[in-house]
Design a protein that fits this description.
The chain is α+β, with helices and mostly antiparallel strands. The protein has three helices and nine strands. The longest helix is centred in the N-terminal third of the chain and has 11 residues. The chain starts with 7 loop residues before the first strand and ends in a 5-residue tail after the last strand.
Length: 142
């Protein structure tokens, strides 16, 4: 079965969990020379996200905005570092249906709001070789 096939449009971003967004911004912008947007609060996950760009690539620095954020638990267990890979898809509902039909384990059965006006859904690491995977539908092209 061609699970995602033409729905997959490539890598959208790499997400890195950080404890301190200001410190991480300094590292990625001042030292590495990346360009950065303004941070955005994502209420659903209770995180602040800073998008950094370089060479056409997008890195999202993700910091917890509250003690009950899933990212707070991630930091406590693992420390900062790679959190997930995100892939751009043209139709999120269709992508989820195809993966579900292929027997993949989904964290999100339906799309939910993501940063910068996107819609997202997560795929469980057990279906992707141990890597938390996010599917992103970005109709605004951010």
């Amino acid at each position: 079965m061609d699970a995602l096939g033409p729905l997959s449009l490539g890598l959208h971003h790499v997400a890195i969990v950080v404890a301190d967004l200001d410190e991480a911004r300094s590292r990625y912008v001042d030292v590495l020379g990346f360009e950065a947007d303004e941070p955005e609060f994502v209420p659903d996950q209770r995180v602040n996200v800073l998008v950094c760009r370089t060479g056409g690539q997008r890195i999202e620095l993700v910091a917890p905005a509250s003690e009950d954020s899933p990212v707070t638990r991630f930091l406590e267990k693992r420390g900062g570092g790679l959190h997930h890979l995100a892939y751009l898809v043209s139709d999120l509902e269709a992508a989820l249906a195809r993966l579900r039909g292929a027997g993949w384990r989904l964290i999100d059965d339906a799309p939910r709001p993501g940063a910068h006006g996107t819609r997202i859904a997560f795929v469980h690491p057990s279906s992707t070789g141990g890597v938390l995977t996010e599917l992103v539908e970005d109709r605004q092209g951010t």
